[in-house]
Amino acid sequence: MAKPENNRGLRRLINATRWSMQGFASAYRHEAAFRQEVWLLAPLLPVGLWLGDSGVEKALLAGSLLIVLLVELLNSAVENVVDRIGDEPHKLSGRAKDQGSAAVFVALLLVVMTWGLVLLV
């Protein structure tokens, strides 16, 4: 699909923001894991900002939570592309989905590690 020539500057920023909001809404509507992570982030984000002693600690606590959402969005995108290609089982499709899931798991481990080290050490 060709890009319109007038899609520059402020118009491009407005369009990109609209598409991003559509992506968030779609993930929230169609992905149970994303909804769960959003509901965990909602109380933990302000708690992390309150518990962090310095700007760096606040950024680590909050940023680790946001990374989970980022990785979940990418995982969902991979799963959607794999599902779009076909429903028949294929080892590469399974591997792609499993690796996306593993990436989310690593992001969740990052939250546990970051919160543990910042708050307990």
UniProtKB/TrEMBL annotation:
InterPro entries: DAGK (IPR000829), DAGK_prok (IPR033718), DAGK_sf (IPR036945). The active site is at E72 (proton acceptor). Its cofactor is Mg(2+). Pfam families: DAGK_prokar. PROSITE patterns: DAGK_PROKAR. Belongs to the bacterial diacylglycerol kinase family. This is Diacylglycerol kinase.
